User: What shape does this take?
Amino acid sequence: EAQVTQNPRYLITVTGKKLTVTCSQNMNHEYMSWYRQDPGLGLRQIYYSMNVEVTDKGDVPEGYKVSRKEKRNFPLILESPSPNQTSLYFCASRKTDTQYFGPGTRLTVL
Amino acid sequence: GESVGLHLPTLSVQEGDNSIINCAYSNSASDYFIWYKQESGKGPQFIIDIRSNMDKRQGQRVTVLLNKTVKHLSLQIAATQPGDSAVYFCAVTMNSGGYQKVTFGTGTKLQVIP
Assistant: This one.
């Protein structure tokens, strides 16, 4: 089954404790991206990757890092999480125009 | 840039009636539009798309209308069912320096009354 998977689905952590949210797709898509979704706001892009070893900032990259060492995986790294990074995070991938989203990771930073 | 708005936060519809959800965008250079459905606890799911060279596209029980003159698009759901209850939002795409810039609307929560 073609899908985008994320782990963990839920995470509660404390300020400053480094964390990584993994994302994997099995569709051999070159383009992958990370979004955050907050109440009253549309999805906002954090980072995107056009291909392996090619990443770039989206609209809200501050406080986040990503890596793309292989085509299927695109982890999101929060080196020092802060409460304003409490949000619902989605990973997505696409080949042409249509993006396919993962199930989301709900992160709470205390 | 692009801004996307004019979603009604909530729309309540009787089961069996038709639903219309609206979206407005600001940049006339936007050329590709998608509607997504997001059920509680899940990621957004593609419903239907339309390109700027069309003004109407139909799928199964869904129709998207695009009015480029007023920069408005709508999603129509025929014979709304309880399973249609979800948040619906549009995504507007514009080519910007060789990169596809996507802007998402905030969404309309569709509540289907049995």
About this structure: The mean pLDDT of chain A is 95. The radius of gyration of chain A is 13 Å. The longest strand of chain A covers residues 44-51.
